[in-house]
Amino acid sequence: MPSHVAFLRAINLGANRKFPKDAIRGCVENAGFTDVETYINTGNVRLSTPMRSRVKIEAALEKAFLADRGFEVPTIVFSASELAQVARDAEELHCPELARHYIWLLKEEPTAETIDEVHALDRDGHRAVIRGRSCHLLLVEGYEQGAVDPLRTEKRLGVATNRNFNVVTTLARKWC
Fold first, then answer.
1. Interatomic CA distance for residues 128 and 116, integer angstroms
2. pLDDT digits (tens, 9 = 90+) for 19-75
3. Which CATH number is correct for 83-175, 1.10.8, 1.10.287, 3.40.50, 3.30.70?
4. Residues in Cβ contact with 139 at an 8 Å cutoff, skipping those fewer than 6 apart
């Protein structure tokens, strides 16, 4: 049965969007998915399902999360092979000069126009590299301390959630 990795967006932020990993795991299992495993408390879930459609998997998970939590949880799903490719891209793009390497995981692949808009934001050595449904933010020293997206790319990319280089590459080694 195919494995997928789901990335939940905007959970465990503040008092009203709590969704601990054990609750996520139970909710995913109750929705009929198998081989469910979570990794850290930021909404990373491996699952197996006979469903082949990413869109259907996302919809089933989002419906289950809304019913369980009472709030919407945008969910971005990658097949194991897609996530492995994102991690290979991350390894290729990563270099010691980077202060931070964040990866936006996108619900939909951006249009050529959107890609051009995002690349136009590159400045002062900071840049974004888009490959398929991922956008790698490669940030050098001097970026806005603590800011995940000093280039303000997310608003142009649509529904997305971010993880750092270490989380993405760890998940790929662990689950792909």
1. 11
2. 999 999 999 999 999 999 999 988 999 999 999 999 999 999 999 999 999 999 999
3. 3.30.70
4. 98, 99, 100, 101, 102, 126, 150
CATH of 3-80, one of 3.30.70.1280, 3.40.50.720, 3.40.50.1260, 3.40.50.300: 3.30.70.1280
Of the two residues 98 and 145, the one the predictor is more confident about is 98
Nearest to 131, CA basis, from 145, 119, 144: 119
* Nearest-5° Cα angle at 151, 79 to 6: 20
**pTM higher than 0.90 for the full model?**
yes
For residues 91 and 129, is the Cβ–Cβ distance under 8 A? no
Whole-angstrom Cα Rg for the chain:
16
Report whether 137 contacts 168 (CB < 8 A).
Answer: no
Among candidate residues 28, 24, 30, the one with its CA nearest the CA of residue 47: 28
CB 134 within 8 A of CB 87: no
Strands 44-48 and 75-79 come out as: unpaired
